[in-house]
Amino acid sequence: MPPTSLELSTLGHRIRHQRLAHGYTLDELGALVGVAGSQLSLIENGKREPKLSLLQSIASVTGVEVAELLSAEPPNRRAALEIELERAQSSSVFRQLGVAPVKVTKGMSDETIESILGLHRELQRREREAIATPEEARRANTELRLRMRELDNYLPDIEKLAEKQLKAAGHVSGALTHRTVSIMAEKLGFELIYVNDLPHSTRSVTDLEHGRIYLPPASIPGGHGLRSMALQAMAHRLLGHERPTDYADFLQQRLEINYYAACCLMPETASVAFLQQAKKDRNLAVEDFRDAFGVTHEAAGMRLTNLATQHLGIRLHFLRVDGSGAITRVYENDDLPLPMDITGAVDGQMACRKFSARAAFDEQNRTTEHYQYTDTPAGTFWCSTQTGTTSAGEFSITVGVPFDDARWFRGRETQKRATSTCPDESCCRRAAPDVAARWSGKAWPSARVHMQMFSPLPRGAFPGVDDNEVYDFLDRHA
């Protein structure tokens, strides 16, 4: 891999430092190592990569090791300042201003460079803390959902990366163990450490300097969440993520690390073999897929959306709906009619009351999946829904397909059927005329105001994360 401009700049500074320390001019050192002074100047300014033989000659003449010239550390404070300024002036944040970069000269004092750097640091700080408006965030989320729809929710490069990492860790089949996840971390140079004092705004913290990934206590029941969190933390490194540049970048990174974790917990080769056999048997079921790999129902449902269209030729939809009926997670490529706002956003919209995703809350038996056919303006869909409860309240997980594909799924024989005409207001949003007339002017409900209605989007490069908490935590454990 060729060196970066920053690496070349650091190398150039170290060569210049040694040249000046020995009192050589460019031409004098050039004559000693067999190159023109002008060529040496290009190398010192980071404009040209020197051959190894030339580096060996420079090291020999100046009495140092080649490794010292190649060190990533600037040779002195002045060089460190110039390198930091070069990096700042090449950033996208600075380039967007359209301001000409400052050219550093020999006569420019360190204090002047420090002052300019202070302005750059403040510019970067303000950029990191820029607040995305709720509308901007919703648009970014919608654009990401539509991109994934075009890809049938399938990312082959991450699928291959996950299988490669699993093979290197010795995983062959069955549920992914905590031990194997630890081995995967070790191969990346990280140790998994479980602590009781993680910052409340984080799910995990990675200490890049000391090679540690901090996770919540290992006593959490089930363990799926811990494996997933560790895999997500590793994914940032494997996928080469940098600090998010905006909210859209943050969402893209979050999607990619979640996808990688899912690929590791439910590897493509094994998952596809399992699903293809179930389809052949006309017995596809999210609950079987879930149990075969030891993950949550939601994880299995989402993983099915990654693989069903690509490998089974089945288009489908996935919904997570909370107890109030609001859609909190969604994917569809089967044209299920979903409620949308003016920006095209689905998240936060109310699902139709007739949908299985909401009707399942009325079922007495919630230990098994709830099956239903729903006639809609876009056709008839078959759905399988499982409900659950967290500290935040009830939720349902739904996976559904168009009528013709129901033949591959367990539960297709259900007699439960509903009709939805949403987004027509008369379907489930508008009260029946006789009921509305009965109570018109005679009721005054007091609305439950959700605080998130007034909350700005979280600030910072990692939205919602308190940097002070994170740094205090790292200091405690370093």
Automatic annotation (TrEMBL):
User: Which InterPro entries is this protein grouped with?
Assistant: Cro/C1-type_HTH, Lambda_DNA-bd_dom_sf, TransReg_Diox_bact_type
Where does the record place a coiled coil?
none
Protein's UniProt keywords contain Cell cycle: no
Carries keyword DNA-binding?
yes
Q: Which domain of life is it from?
A: Bacteria
Q: Could you tell me the keywords of this UniProt record?
A: DNA-binding
Q: Which residues form the HTH cro/C1-type domain?
A: 15-69
Its name, as the record gives it, is Helix-turn-helix domain-containing protein
State the organism named in the record: Microbacterium jejuense
